[in-house]
Amino acid sequence: VILVNGLAATSIPVEDRGLNYGDGLFETVRVHAGKAPLIDRHLARLRAGSEQLGIPYPGDGALRDDVGRLLGRAADGVLRLVLTRGDGGRGYAPPRDAAARRIVSLHPLPASVNAALAVGLCATRLGSSPALAGLKHLGRLEQVLAAAEVARAGWDEGLMVDQRGQVIEATRHNLFYLRGATVCTPPLQASGVAGVMRGLVLDVQASRGRPVETVPLRYDELHDIDELLLCNAVAGIRPVGRLAGRELPGRSMYAALRDPLAKAGVTWLA
Amino acid sequence: VILVNGLAATSIPVEDRGLNYGDGLFETVRVHAGKAPLIDRHLARLRAGSEQLGIPYPGDGALRDDVGRLLGRAADGVLRLVLTRGDGGRGYAPPRDAAARRIVSLHPLPASVNAALAVGLCATRLGSSPALAGLKHLGRLEQVLAAAEVARAGWDEGLMVDQRGQVIEATRHNLFYLRGATVCTPPLQASGVAGVMRGLVLDVQASRGRPVETVPLRYDELHDIDELLLCNAVAGIRPVGRLAGRELPGRSMYAALRDPLAKAGVTWLA
Fold this sequence. Notes:
9-stranded mixed β-sheet; 6 helices; alpha+beta
């Protein structure tokens, strides 16, 4: 089931700037028990990203209406919200009268993987783009290439390293690691997506008086790690069980975050 | 007039991976006197990019057929060839049975600008992505933001600098500059599009025994330059007349390249 600007549709015009220039943003929203518990965070991020890019935001109301109409269709699943700058002739410059296009579609939950993930290290490096870092924009070709590596290798997921050799994220998850007793996550100033679940974990930890520290993680430091947590809005948080073939026994971050996240709406964790 | 996989169409499926992930490539082809003189170079680049990304290339024949059907419609103009990885469900990993989608459309020539361009320096920095550098892929959001700057400032074009302060290209042109008597162009190992017209200039100069040197150009070196040439497949080559408000008097590169380029098929230069 797909809604394009609120109407049932299966196609978009060839002139759409999302297609032609990656000129748009998207959100991947978990549906659980017939609801979208994190929709407020998704809409806030979409609004902030639209403002940064100068894409006219259609308003929370229109997007909530779309989401509400699809929520009745499945108790569990994934909603994809795409917002493009709409149609615009040939040429990079945004048209003055751009009218954003919203595309909302419902998808089944991905096939469940092992509770603890087997993770490798992708050869495809993340680029850096100060103008776009943190945004979940439509240009995801690096992730496509890295995900192809993950599929070929038979991993559940793959970590991505930037050009300086710093671990930034996985192809479709952010990550948390422990430095001593402190929960840390890599900075996203130059690369990576500032995920909704990452933001929730940051807020949950801050409200517990144990704020997450943003500290770069060099890829050669992975050898010293015994707990790694991946997160995204669909899965929630997930422990890494094997990292590049090595067992990771630690589950303390997972155990500490499970209940606070459930209180914050993430009620589907094992 | 638009052909999608060879059939007249105005829309594409919402599932297209070009829309959802920027998972595709494009070419912007000049039509002049009812022909597309550089089509061989465009198809060669599209094929090479497809191989690099693992997108199944539909073959020169299908693309030449599409182009041939649109060439009769206008003596002069621009053909846009888009090749996406086709449809593929939610998720970055390319489907095993991906079938590329080709979208070919005909557009009018852009409004002619001053013969010599007035060029500024964009604040939007080009990112770097070793995995994607050189490719004309669909994720062009940095160019969109920079082109919006160009429009706001009223320039004809804007130069883009990478994170190290090196001038890489303009929003829709590559560039050549002089170092002594040698024609130089910035390297594109980490950023930028390896344009078809840039490639033709490199070949023309090599065949004249005056090979272009690939040398980084720091933005503070722009003060010392008195000739700058922009190029793309639609315009050909164009001298920069004003750079950040300063007159650039030099036209020697333009004069030296005009006739060799005409012999190579670029017959529309002033």
